[in-house]
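job 3f2a | input accepted
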Amino acid sequence: MRSRLALAVLAFIALGSSLAFASRPPQEWTPPPAMTPEQIEAQKIAMKQKFNAYGKDIPVQSTPVPWMAIGLAGLAFAAAAPFAYKAYKSTAKDIDVAAGYAQDYDEPSDRL
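job 3f2a | predicted structure (112 res):
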């Protein structure tokens, strides 16, 4: 029942909008006035010029590269890398033991 009501409302809206557009008279198109070659040349010159002088006297400022922040981030990663590796190896060992295929981690393995 609701779908029929929705369909009826949709048809009413579509019919009403189409009747609204059909009641307006069509507008006539008029071509733009013809320009002389001098006017065309003047328009081309005017289009090449700047609209305003906003960017004329303003220098372009670029932000410097934050080398200190990059260096500190690299230092932090270098300091944390051994601890992260140790935590990874410990977690991998725990997972292998829990999965049941643990190997001897004390001896060096042939795997890289």
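job 3f2a | Residues 67-99 form the longest helix (33 residues).
job 3f2a | closed
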